[in-house]
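User: My notes are a mess, but here's the protein and S-adenosylmethionine's SMILES. Can you give me a structure?
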Amino acid sequence: MDEILKYFPNLTDLQKEQFAKLDFLYHDWNEKINVISRKDIDALYTKHILHSLGIAKVMKFEPGTYVLDVGTGGGFPGIPLAILYPETRFYLIDIIAKKIKVVQSVVDALELKNVKAEQLRAENVKGDFDFIVSRAVTNMPDFVSWVKTKIKKQQKHALKNGILYLKGGDLTEELKDFPKATEYNLADFFEDEFFETKKVVHLPLKFVV
Ligand SMILES: C[S@@+](CC[C@H](N)C(=O)[O-])C[C@H]1O[C@@H](n2cnc3c(N)ncnc32)[C@H](O)[C@@H]1O
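Assistant: No problem, the inputs look usable. Here's the predicted complex:
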């Protein structure tokens, strides 16, 4: 929890309480279902929560923005972002029902009114979104083909709205068809060595073709 406060010092009391509760909620679920890998659950705040919030270091979601999290699994990056941005609407989807059950129970426990969670395949999502976020679901070309029709076409900010994907390692090959994508190194924002190879890829709507 200290690492969240270090990098996001202006949280409200409610947000602090919600982030703190994630510790118990995810440990409790993980004893029943393997929603977070056993080796990572003890680093929940760094490897999952702070990593998810890396998107917020790159992009500020304005109130009223509508965000889709594709393949959210246990709720990453969607849940940490929804706590940070209570005025933004989040739609979290995954094809696996038991993962959505975990997400729904976390949403209920935190009383997150800005989140809807649903068992759904990315390709079948209906809606127009300002941003599509994701982590560790598939390669960039497939991801873009799944979601490109879901980004609202009438955007005020076509150079801003679009895809924000959390990725690691060398992305040269994966991004060769997307020369306009921008890679942001999370090591520029967070000190822990976990972030050394971690990036946020931003592909604005204007270049999602
Ligand atoms: C490696 S997990 C990552 C989960 C989460 N994003 C995270 O970073 O902790 C990949 C998730 O993507 C989901 N997934 C894979 N293909 C999908 C699709 N076509 N539509 C929706 N979800 C999908 C899987 O069910 C799985 O929960």
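Residues 2-207 form a domain with the Rossmann fold fold (CATH 3.40.50.150).
User: Great, I'll file this with my notes.
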